[in-house]
Amino acid sequence: MNQTERQAWLAERKKGLGGTDVAAIMMSGADAADKIGSFEKSLFKIWSEKTGLFESEENDDAVLMRGRVMEKYVFELYELHLGEGCRLWERGLTWHPTRPRIFGTPDAMVEHNGVCFGMDAKTRRFRKGWGKTGTTDVPLDVEVQMRVYMEIFDAPYWDIATLFSLDDFRVYRIERDKELGEQILNIADEWWEKYVVSETPPPPDSTDMCREALGKVFKVNPRVADEPLRVASVAERELYEKILKAREEHKAATVKKNELENQLRSCIGESLGIAGVATWKPSKPRANFDKKRFSQDHPELYKEYVTESPGNRTLRIMEPKNDDSN
To answer: Residue 57: left if φ>0, alpha if ψ -120 to 50, beta else—which one?
Structure first.
């Protein structure tokens, strides 16, 4: 996919919910134990992109680039896994035949032994949430994504070919459950109507992506920049009190964690670690650029290469005031 095709694909994605979007919607209500191995996505960020308030920034970073390069290798391993007589081909972005806001972009469609189904090629560094090859033990967001694809393409099952590191190749197969698939798509359609069509923001979540999106969607109005801060409502005051309490609990937990970690360092002593518990190894030396010294020694050259980027909105929680009037 070249850059022009990728931009067209990103523009098409704004018109509905893809498999990973639906997975994020389903994951938002899942228990923490069910999210093991799943990726973190922000529903607020998805909403802001679908409504056009926030442009998607799908940059070709090192992780994405590595994934696309390794994907070809995963395809080859998967074809060897299936054996002779299999055929793989691309379908690209495809819309659900009866649900106009649901689409999928599978890695490949597969024909094998007279059966047409699909597969997704994935690369992972960590195995948490993934079971043994040949099982259905995959992270919940991956399972939901595949169930969306099975409903779009009317497939009896879907394979997930996954490469961990460079030599641990596993294949998982998810069987179709039409009733469960319909329930998942019903939830996705309801979410689209409730938030995107009505342009109603979903509740903010705890992700960094949500914080980033909030900062870009809600910019400071120049007309109120010099006005005094307004008085908090009852609900805002309650939220403030909850933040103060959570901050104190976080501080106490951090102090306790640091204490326990230092006790463990003392136990490790001069060794490199304790098997099955922890390692305590020296890091490699890092080369650091002394920006302050360079600006002093070469001020003109420093100015030539300095660029200015827009500032971000910073949330600063005010310290509670002590009332000593009594």
So the answer is: beta
Alpha-carbon dihedral angle through residues 54, 55, 61, 63, given to the nearest 10 degrees: 60
Q: Give the CA angle between residues 107, 111, 115 to the nearest 5°.
A: 120
The DSSP bridge pattern shows strands 115-124 and 157-164 to be: parallel
pLDDT digits (tens, 9 = 90+) for 155-169: 999 999 999 988 899
Residues 6+ apart with CB under 8 A from 47: 195, 196, 201, 202
Long-range contacts, stretch 163-169, CB < 8 angstroms, 24+ apart = 163/70, 163/73, 163/74, 163/77, 163/121, 163/122, 163/123, 163/124, 164/123, 164/124, 164/125, 164/126, 164/127, 164/130, 165/125, 168/127, 169/74, 169/77, 169/81, 169/133
Q: Number of H helices and number of E strands within the chain?
A: 10, 9
Residue 195's nearest CA partner among 313, 42, 55 is 42
Token pair 């230092």 is found at 262
Count other Cβ atoms within 10 Å, centred on residue 27.
Answer: 19
pLDDT per residue as tens digits for the range 133-156: 999 999 999 999 999 999 999 999
